[in-house]
Every structure is written in structure tokens, then in C-alpha cells.
Amino acid sequence: MLCFPQRLKGLEGAVSFSATHPTWQRTRPDDEGDEHCGWVFRKSTDAPLTNSNGVGSFPSDELCGDGDQIEGCASIRDIYELGGDKGGKYTTPVLWDKVNKVIVNNESTEILRIFNSQFQSLCTHPEVDLYPAELEKEVSLGRREERVEGGGIDVGMNEWTGVEVPWSACLLQCYDGQKRSRRLDAVLFP
Ligand SMILES: N[C@@H](CCC(=O)N[C@@H](CS)C(=O)NCC(=O)O)C(=O)O
Questions:
Q1: By the 8 A CB rule, do 170 and 148 touch?
Q2: Residues 68, 69, 70, 71, CA torsion sign
Q3: Which domains does the chain have, with CATH numbers?
Q4: Residue 93, preceding peptide bond in cis (omega within 30° of 0)
Q5: Is the CB of 152 under 6 A from ligand 1?
Q6: Model pTM?
Q7: What letter does residue 124 receive in the DSSP assignment?
């Protein structure tokens, strides 16, 4: 998802982008005792993969590009471990500092804000504002609802607020969240 703000701001020359394969795979396939499954890098010329349940066939197409060309890691877990985080969860997205070999940030909305304001002299489109001040409140509400919709919760639990939410309320929030994102899209991308 963060390839869109990267391109809208014209950051391709300053921040590279590596995509993972869309399925989760064993990240330590040679270690029988380690059953962790997560995002892996593949090259577009690699063979298709089944998912971690052994179902389907998912191509390693052009979206996978050349895998991780920066560190040569095989998985997102490898990136976290290279940065000193061995505890998980190994989530995407990750903004990686290739000089200091650390994760700068792994929260998408924060990376979005970093892209919007912290690399202005390196952007080819510094005039693009992805986070207009007048929409801040609406964006943050939409984001919270999107997390409910996107399953970033345990049963009935809104991870952002830590509040138990009944499923009926979740569904209502999803519905409202969808309407809200359509309104935001109309304003941001008329
Ligand atoms: N705080 C993160 C959470 C990201 C997140 O949950 N990412 C999912 C993919 S969309 C993931 O990588 N999950 C891996 C896992 O749960 O092990 C964000 O919203 O940016």
C-alpha cells in the first residue's frame, strides 16, 4: 500500500520499495521446531507458491520484483532480526534504515506521515499533501474503523482503543468506515 504515497510524493529516488510474495510461508523451513509463517521475498522469476496450508498456487509475478535487493533477506522476519528484534510480530510495512540497519518505523499511518513531511527536499512532488490538516480527525477515525474491518482485532476487541466491542458494533463501524473512506477518497483524489 505504501508504494502509492511513495510515488505520489515522488520519493522513488530516495526510498526504494520491496514487495513480498502475497502468501505466508514457513520462515525457518529447515528448523522443524520453528513453525513461524510470515511474509517472504521472492523473485518474479521464481516458481509459484502454495499458501502455508498447502492450498492454491500463487505466482511470484512482477510485483515481487527482485525480492529484497537491499539486504538480501529471505523474509520480513529476517529484516526484523537483522534490526535486533527477535520477538515478533513480524509485520509489514517496514521502513528500513539501510545505513544503520534498523527499522525506523513499522506502523503504516506513521510511515505515511513521515513520507508526507520528512523528506520534502528529496521528493519530486513536495507540494502533494497526503495528510491535509483539515482532514486529520476524519482520517484518524477512518483508520480506526478500517482496523476493525481489516481484522486487526481479536474477537470483539478494538486493538487501537483496547476497548471490547460487540460484533454488531464492529459491523456498524465497518459500514461507517467504508462510507467515510469513500468520502475521503473523493476529497483527496478528486
Ligand atoms: N501496525 C501495523 C500493523 C500491520 C499489520 O498487521 N500488518 C499485517 C499485514 S497487513 C502483517 O504483517 N501481519 C503479519 C502477522 O500478523 O504476523 C500497521 O497497521 O501498519
A1: yes
A2: positive
A3: 3-122 (3.40.30.10), 133-188 (no CATH)
A4: yes
A5: yes
A6: 0.77
A7: S
